[in-house]
DNA sequence: CCACTATTCAACCAATCGGTTGACAATGCC
DNA sequence: GGCATTGTCAACCGATTGGTTGAATAGTGG
C-alpha cells in the first residue's frame, strides 16, 4: 500500500526518456534492444526504465523466444486524463462563476454611482 | 535548459500531497498556512511543495498583506492532456487496424479451408 | 517602535533515482 | 554441446527529493 497507481503513472512519465519510449511504443511494439538503440545509455538502464513503465501499468510484455516485446497499455492513460480533467473543469467553472459575479458587481456599481469615481 | 515543462508538470503531480493540494485549490484559492493545516508535516515542507507546483506553472501566487495566496493555473493541465491523448489515440488506432487485419485473415482462412481445423 | 503573523531561506539527513559495470539466466542456432 | 543473442539481477555511485529544525524576512496592528 506504499504508493497508489496514479503516483506511479505520473512519476513514470516525469522522465523524458520514458515519455519518449511511450511515444515510440504508440506506433508499434518493440524489444528492449530496439528501444535502447537511439539513446547513448546502456541497455540495462533502458531495461530499468521499462520496468518502471511496466510497474505503472503503462506497458505489458510478451514472450517471443528470448525476446520480451513491449506493448503500450493505453487504458492507464485514461486514469490520468480523468484525474486531470476533473480539476481543470472544476477550476474553470469556478472562474466562470467568479466572472459572472464580477460582472454583476460592475453593473451594480455603475447603477449605484453613475458618475462618481472612487476617491484617490 | 535542464528539464522541459512537461517533465516538471508530471513530476509535480507524482506526489500525492501535491495532487491533493491541486485538488483543494481547484475549489478555491488558499494561503500556505491553510493548505498546510490538514497534513502532519511542517509548514515549510508545504511551502516547498507549493514552490514545486509554482515552478511547474500549476499555481500562481498573489499578494494580500503578508499572505501569499495560491491560485490554480488550470491552463497547464491542457499540456498534459494533449500529450497523453495523442499517444492514447495513436495506440487505439493501431489496435483497431490490427483487429481489422486479424478479422480479414480469419475470413480468408475460413474461405480457404472451410471444414479443416489446424493440426494439433 | 514592538510584537505578532505569514512565509521563506539555509543547512542538514535518509531515501530514492538514473546511471554505471559485471555476472547470470534463458533461448535459438550451428 | 557450445556459442551468440537477449534480457535481467546485484552492487555501487552521485544527484535529487521530501522531510526536518532554526533563523531570517516582510508586512500588520497595537
UniProtKB/TrEMBL annotation, chains A, B:
PANTHER family per the UniProt record, alphabetical: SLL0088 PROTEIN (PTHR38600:SF2), TRANSCRIPTIONAL REGULATORY PROTEIN (PTHR38600)
Domain HTH arsR-type: 1-92
One Pfam family recorded for the sequence: HTH_20
GO MF annotation terms: DNA-binding transcription factor activity
Name of protein: Transcriptional regulator
Species: Streptomyces fructofermentans
Transmembrane residue ranges: none
Amino acid at each position: 500500500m506504499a504508493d497508489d497507481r496514479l503516483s506511479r503513472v505520473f512519476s513514470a512519465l516525469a522522465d523524458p526518456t520514458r515519455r519518449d519510449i511511450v511515444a515510440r511504443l504508440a506506433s508499434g511494439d518493440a524489444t528492449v534492444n530496439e528501444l535502447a538503440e537511439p539513446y547513448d545509455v546502456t541497455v540495462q538502464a533502458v531495461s530499468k526504465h521499462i520496468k518502471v513503465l511496466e510497474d505503472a501499468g503503462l506497458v505489458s510484455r510478451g514472450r517471443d523466444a528470448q525476446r520480451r516485446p513491449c506493448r503500450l497499455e493505453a487504458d492507464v492513460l485514461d486514469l490520468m486524463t480523468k484525474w486531470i480533467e476533473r480539476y481543470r473543469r472544476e477550476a474553470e467553472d469556478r472562474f466562470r462563476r467568479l466572472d459572472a459575479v464580477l460582472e454583476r458587481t460592475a453593473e451594480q456599481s455603475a447603477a449605484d454611482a453613475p458618475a462618481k469615481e472612487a476617491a484617490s
